[in-house]
């Protein structure tokens, strides 16, 4: 039995939920999201709550895992259309900068040409000094775009130069030491 899957998801007043077969559509003030639920999972709306359950009483271990997974995905959809999600990336290094050009992000991080990151639908970039903010209603998309931006120039372990998540700790390495010669 899935401990996460059993928990009901409260539907806020400004959120609209539609279920058509195995597809759930959630719309709210920050956008619309849709997700197809696995055929082994049953989804229903009762008394202002979204309830997920396995279709069969004798379900497999895989079904229990899918039950918890899809409950978490639907809960993130409801949270995304009401509050939204945000990832912060920190830029460290002399001459490293980021600029928002239209909807896209331009990164100058030590390469000869700036690296352009296209902005997918539903995502918004903003830059404040040495911080990049990636915001949107879809949690998976926000995390994926933040990972793509970080991958452009990961923070290196000697000086810490590069792009890293705001709360990420970089393990610093000691550089080479010059051995003193005996006289």
Q: Could you give the distance between the termini?
A: 73 Å
Tally the beta strands: 13
How do the strands of the widest beta sheet line up side by side?
11-12-7-13
Radius of gyration: 22 Å
Helical/strand content category? alpha+beta
Topology order in helix (H) and strand (E) letters: EEEEEEHEEEEEEHE
Rounded mean pLDDT is 92
Question: Low-confidence segments, ≥5 residues, pLDDT <50?
Answer: none
The description of the largest β-sheet is: 4 strands, antiparallel
Please state the overall shape, judged from the principal axes of the Cα atoms. Answer: elongated
Helix share bin:
10-25%
Strand percent estimate? 35-45%
Number of DSSP helical runs: 2
Describe this protein's structure:
By secondary structure, this protein is of the alpha+beta class. The chain is elongated, with a radius of gyration of 22 Å. The protein contains two helices and 13 strands. The strands form four sheets. The chain has a four-stranded antiparallel β-sheet, covered by helices on one side. It has a three-stranded antiparallel β-sheet with strand order 1-6-5. Strands 2-3-4 form a three-stranded antiparallel β-sheet, covered by helices on one side. The chain has helices at residues 61-82, 139-152; strands at 9-10, 16-20, 23-28, 31-36, 41-46, 49-54, 85-92, 97-101, 104-108, 115-117, 123-128, 131-136, 162-165.
